[in-house]
Write a structure and sequence with these properties.
Bound molecules: zinc ion
Distance between the termini: 40 Å
CATH superfamily: Ribonuclease Z/Hydroxyacylglutathione hydrolase-like
Shape: elongated
Radius of gyration: 19 Å
Order of helices and strands: EEHEEEEHEHEHEEEEEHEHHH
Number of strands: 14
Strand order of the largest sheet: 2-9-8-7-6-5-4-3
Strand content: 15-25%
CATH topology: Metallo-beta-lactamase, Chain A
């Protein structure tokens, strides 16, 4: 049984199951092809059972979390392609659970493609920006828009869900399972990779570290990132400090009158963590360029 502690706003009104993937193939997540990772490996799903009620499904696109209460289940992110298919089969056919609620951390294909596969799919929790982006791709669902915090109860489990601010996109949602001190971050955090700022989807390099900083205020021990293995608080600290370091060095280079290319050459980040690039998505140079442009725009009073 699910209980909601917030005023919920359903959009669309279509019955569950009427979602469609349609043009989602054009929205392949920029984090979809991890550095040095063969496609086969990227599609591989590793299931980790935490206890009788909580499982992680790592890989196969974005990481997923399944929390159950009796036969009902709450699922965070639905993966993509064959991995989405195998996740649905595992949850519905083998574990014999009905997915009554889904939360999408954001709109990227590798996290959201499998949405229409579930037979008993109920409301889908998304940020308004994610809902609009998915609808523009032809996806339909019984949307529940989430901005400020709402709480979802499954028996004695309480899941707090909210939009912590811009970062990876402008529609990221996170979830916090207080009893377990567990945070689910979507692509605001990855285990090993350069932070991905999807500017076309509203990502914001300047806001990113403040959004991550707000998550560090929570009393969590473990975070399930968007990609990679579960991490501790130090990974969020690393992300925050890395972006702060880039911002500082870019500001210093700009103060010397450097052009963007000169800023890129000047920002050395000596001693900064070595993060894996994301092909077609993110690398250190791209982050520096995004920071340079964002700071120049801010200096000129351009707001987004
Ligand atoms: Zn993403």
């Amino acid at each position: 049984m699910f209980l909601w502690r917030a005023r919920l706003r359903n959009r669309d009104g279509r019955a569950p199951g009427q979602t469609r993937r349609a043009a989602l193939s054009t929205v392949v997540c920029v984090t979809a092809l991890l550095a040095g990772c063969a496609t086969q490996q990227f599609l591989r799903v590793e299931e980790r059972t935490l206890d009788a009620r909580l499982r992680f499904f790592l890989g196969g696109g974005g990481n997923s979390l399944l929390l159950t209460h009796g036969r009902d289940a709450f699922l965070i992110d639905t993966k993509f392609m064959g991995a989405a298919k195998s996740l649905r089969h595992r949850v519905e056919e083998e574990l014999v659970r009905d997915v009554r609620r889904v939360m999408l951390t954001h709109s990227h294909f590798d996290h959201a493609d499998g949405l229409d596969r579930y037979r008993a799919l109920g409301p889908v929790l998304v940020h308004e920006a994610t809902r609009k982006r998915l609808e523009a791709q032809g996806v339909r669902a019984d949307w529940v828009e989430v901005g400020g915090p709402i709480e979802l109860r499954l028996g004695d489990e309480v899941v707090r869900i909210w939009h912590p601010g811009r970062g990876h996109t402008d529609g990221d949602l996170v979830a916090y399972l207080s009893r377990r001190k567990l945070l689910v971050t979507g692509d605001l955090v990855t285990e090993l990779n350069e932070p991905v700022i999807d500017v076309k989807a509203g990502g914001d390099v300047l806001a990113f570290r403040h959004t991550v900083e707000s998550l560090l205020a929570l009393d969590f021990v473990t975070a399930l990132p968007g990609h990679g293995a579960p991490v501790g608080r130090e990974t969020l600290v690393r992300t925050r400090d890395y972006l702060a370091r880039i911002e500082l060095e870019v500001i210093a280079a700009q103060a010397r009158g450097f052009s963007e290319d000169e800023v890129v050459a000047e920002v050395r980040l000596v001693g900064a963590p070595s993060l894996e690039p994301v092909p077609f998505g993110a690398n250190r140079e791209k982050t520096v360029r995004l920071m340079d442009r964002a700071l120049r725009a801010r200096a000129q009073g351009v707001t987004r």
